[in-house]
Amino acid sequence: MYKFTFIKTELNSVLFKPLKNYFALIFLFVLSFNSIAQTVTHVTSDNDLEDAVALAAPGDVIIVDNGTYNSFQVTISGIVSVGDPITIKAETIGGVTLTGSSHFRLKQSSNIVIEGFVMDCEGTSSLVKLDGCNNIRISRNVFELVTTSSIKWVYIGGVWDDTTEPYQYLSHDNRIDHNIFQNKTLPGHYITIDGTNSVVQSQNDRIDHNYFKNNGPRAVNEQESIRIGWSDMSMSSGFTTVEYNLFENCDGDPEILSVKSSDNIIRHNTFIKSYGTLSLRHGNRNRVEGNYFFGGEKEIGLSPDGATLYTGGIRVYGKDHVIINNYFEGLNGTKWDAPITITQGDALETSTSYSKHFIPQDIVIAYNTLVNNDYGIEIGFDNNGSYSKKVQNILFANNLVTGSTNSLVNYINNQGSEVIWKNNLMYPTGTATLTNDGSTFTVNEAITENPFLVMNDGVYRSTTNTPKYNDSSSGAASTDIEGQTRPALSNPGADHFSAESVRYAPLTANDVGPYVADDGTISENLTVTTVSEYDAAGGSQSVTVTSNIANWTVSETSDWISVSPSTGSENGSFDIIVSKNETFVERTALVNVAGGSESRNVSVTQAAADPKADLTLINNLGNGNDGVVVNYFSHEEVTSTKNNVAGNSLDKSFSTLWSGNGTEDPSGLAIIIFDLGAYYDLELVDFASTNGKTYEFQIWVSSTGTADVDFSNPFTADEKLLSNSDGSFKSFFLPSVASNVRFVKIVGYGQPKPSTWTSISEIEFYGNLVAALSVEEDEFASQLNIYPIPATGTLNIMAKNNNVKSVKLFGVDGRMLINKTISSMQFEIPLDVSSIANGTYLLVLTNDSNVTYSKLIYISK
């Protein structure tokens, strides 16, 4: 980056005019150079993304092309962008779906934007983790995680070993905005704001315009949707702002939003149908302003451990808080979860046991509206005597409370003069009472009169008939909940009747999330969920579509996939139906969802059919208990520290193995022969070697004996097979079924590097038992002698009874290569195979009684 310093002079002669023009040209050139330097790079993998970030300059944009990426794991460390941020974004918002164990981890980095991804993940890692970062923006993403562990989905904190002052990597000025967090089922938070060394919280972070939904069922603890700070750093000033967020069905923790540090602002958020409260759990000097709480007719619930669940409002501990201009309607909470809950505590402000419940002290609660809740303001709950310390100096001023059930004010324990009431409006209706203990208020404390509220756009608002009271909050509010000017003489409660425009209304799903622009306009959005891998049998899975597009269509191009329905409107769903996969190959395809100018693909993967599903495992028991034994081995490695004997290959344990050195055999090869114990039509051999090593070998089969001439190779001549290198089974299908196999010989060529050692951890054989030969078949076989094996130019067939009437030779592909009729009785039948390529073939002989005999032979010239 070039930097020019211009020095102003008093010289304005014609002589200097060209020089001024020269500098102007240089300045324009620099601007042009900087513009060119801000590059846009497209990537399609996590490694490419990391490489692009490492080379990026301030202002560069790195685009991940639309599609679905599994286990897309990005780590960015030590990238400090000065000035314009480096932006990492999906090609289109919602167009990139990250699955599996995908995550972003940023370490000691700054000025980076992560934007537009759908993280539909599973695993045990945070989806986004910031360690010692600043000025990071996490924007316009969708977060969802299936896990079996307690996971903090988005985590902002320090560096774990930054423990000595002055701290080197303090976290600050990060922003999480316009995201969707959804479907949390286990402990851990949607967002965690932590800090450094359990002392200093990350500061000046902003959480705004997000949609938090479906957090549940209720856990005992640690499942807040947002947690700011924690007990040990509660005296630290966070200066976190949480604003313009929507919380819906966030039931996972007694504290929907838990504030555990000082000097934070929680404003203009909307809470709907959520069990629990906004809790000022630890810390001081927090401001809670302009929030809406709606019960939404959600009934009282029951947690998995039997706890009663209520829709609640605000619960407060600590000192010097301001609770102002908030609106509570239709809540059913009491005790911990009343619309406004002020309990006693078990610690005073001088305590250093920061995990305790510090008494509420020096708090202003003003200009709040409580309407049609089951309960109202509750004061003094002592948790069955555990919280024995009373509150100090709590001011209730200019609040409006009206309801038709229970008490508008419930003193669970009387706090005496420590609770101060000034200019509140209390209006009990129906069976409601003013207080639970029959106490009353002076005219300066609370007036019982009709507030004349009217329902307008889903909220009870003040009218021209609503009374006006003098401000008793010491000027705590200059505006009302809607952002309208609040004069000194104004309506009690959150809303002051005014003709000014409404700036802050209750939020809906159309006001938050990835598709709402900063100016409030809503762009077309189309988000689809992913499907998991289908098994070979096929089946149906549902895809959820989240959209504001009036009409969208679903299409597929693969004949093994169908969809239903194929059209939809706005939010909806469709099913992807996959037919049975009868091939032994995994198959993939895309299902497209398109509407308006948006298009999304759902990746469909189906597992291959199991090649062994219809086969019988011959050595299913191991250790010879199934009849399969080692007949011969050329060598086995037995030393004072190793016992790699041949029998280990049949013991059904991957922790043992057979190792043989080819130098111990005259052939220079490691050989092991297995006796199957009976005759089988052999179709497949499963072979597993040792982890981290690949071995070359051949498979030979015999139906007569164990001499070299008895064996034939069912695979291509001289072909060497390769084992897996990870110690797992690798399946080897014989090119055609090898009939009447009794013996299998493994010829080991060692490792390709090379090495003369061959190892087998486990070997398994698949095939079908050959029915016992009939008396006629057995007699015919005993009369035959076939040689030489392997055959060269001529294969000789000796028949003692001169009764062979036909000879046929088949290739492994089933083609008949020789069909010879024997017209006269011959004792010796020469078969010319000189024109047939080297390889394994099936010889079939038939006698004059139509009894057949078949044998695998090997031709090698």
Give descriptors for this structure:
74 strands, Immunoglobulin-like, mainly beta, Jelly Rolls, 3 helices, 861 residues, 14-stranded parallel β-sheet
What does this structure look like?
Residues 1-36 have low confidence and may be disordered. Among the domains are: 525-606, Immunoglobulins (Immunoglobulin-like), CATH 2.60.40; 629-769, Jelly Rolls (Sandwich), CATH 2.60.120; 775-859, Immunoglobulin-like (Sandwich), CATH 2.60.40.3080. A hairpin with a 6-residue loop joins strand 68 (784-787) and strand 69. By secondary structure, it is mainly beta. 5% of the residues lie in helices and 42% in strands.
Q: Characterize the main sheet.
A: 14 strands, parallel
CATH topology category name of the domain at 629-769: Jelly Rolls
CATH class of the domain at 629-769: Mainly Beta
Radius of gyration: 40 Å
User: Count of DSSP E strands?
Assistant: 74
The class by helix and strand makeup works out as mainly beta
Shape: elongated
Flag low-confidence runs. Answer: 1-36
Please report the number of helical segments.
3
